[in-house]
Amino acid sequence: MNFCSQCGAPVDLAVPPGDNVPRHVCRRCGTIHYQNPRMVIGCIAEWEGRILLCRRAIEPRLGLWTLPAGFMENNETTAQAAARETLEEACAEVEIDRLFALVNVPHIHQVHLFYTARLIGGRFGAGAESLESRLFAEAEIPWQEMAFRSVSFALRAWLDDRRRGVFGLHTTDLAPPPPTPPG
Amino acid sequence: MNFCSQCGAPVDLAVPPGDNVPRHVCRRCGTIHYQNPRMVIGCIAEWEGRILLCRRAIEPRLGLWTLPAGFMENNETTAQAAARETLEEACAEVEIDRLFALVNVPHIHQVHLFYTARLIGGRFGAGAESLESRLFAEAEIPWQEMAFRSVSFALRAWLDDRRRGVFGLHTTDLAPPPPTPPG
């Protein structure tokens, strides 16, 4: 952030009075521009014992598999965000069940939520951000080609809970991944 | 939003290609400025059967009672946000237990999370944004002077669960409140 979105003047990084975190503060109008984590919301949509995954057509992680998920928008609820993202990315209508996983990813300022859901009518396709969508039985899940650690976490927890016959709420915090070795 | 925070040029409201929601788009550099819901996170801190509430020293709802809670910051987890807000508003250290309530407030672009927690050592005070803090037994809770509906929801659910002896995860969606009658 370089300029004030209210008045267009340059902003400085400064700790406002009574605060203890540096914020972008407008030199002219004094507006304090807070920055807050964003929510990424998706769902674990089941159909006849199989799970719906999408292969990403966009960066990051182009070509890898993910649960349908994306940034929550203003004016919607968390469950509506999960259903909307599934419709957009997998052309699939779902009946949202309940909140299943919350994953903190603090180093990228995100909180990921995953809902359990049931695919309606077994119908799905590939939205603009997906190369393809597919239903996977447990043994078919491409663990080595998963796009995001939060998705692998939620999926493993779901499979474990299905085995036990009891679905809970699962939470975890992700640290930054180790650096990729050069070459 | 009137100006681009990247380059300082005016922004227009327009639906970007492939999108279906109007966004603030910079006339000069083309940056799309997404706006997303913010998380408000707090906790239900218990001590010897009583619950810690704070009386607000700031607007909105100055003078009314609330659970310690506030906007989640970048670079922290949801549980850390709950503990930090409790320290800031009630000068109280807590041991965070688990996620207890998720309340959508879509008309103000917020998602409220409340954690169950245990007050450490029974110590608390009044932070800069609180007039006072106090421990309340169930019969003493000032329901008519509660600052926010999400707080009342979480508190009632907690008291119900304590009565049943089982703590679950509680979710609800709040609609805009009815308009205040004139005069």
From TrEMBL, chains A, B:
Record key words, sorted = Hydrolase
Matching Gene3D superfamilies: 2.20.70.10, Nucleoside Triphosphate Pyrophosphohydrolase
**Which InterPro entries does the entry link to?**
NUDIX_hydrolase-like_dom_sf, NUDIX_hydrolase_dom, Nudix_N
The UniProt record lists the keyword Chaperone: no
User: What GO annotations for molecular function exist for this entry?
Assistant: hydrolase activity
| Domain Nudix hydrolase: residue ranges | 36-159
User: Is DNA repair a UniProt keyword of this protein?
Assistant: no
Q: Which Pfam families match?
A: NUDIX, Zn_ribbon_Nudix
Task: Spell out the protein name for this chain.
Answer: NUDIX hydrolase
SUPFAM superfamilies tied to this protein:
Nudix (SSF55811)
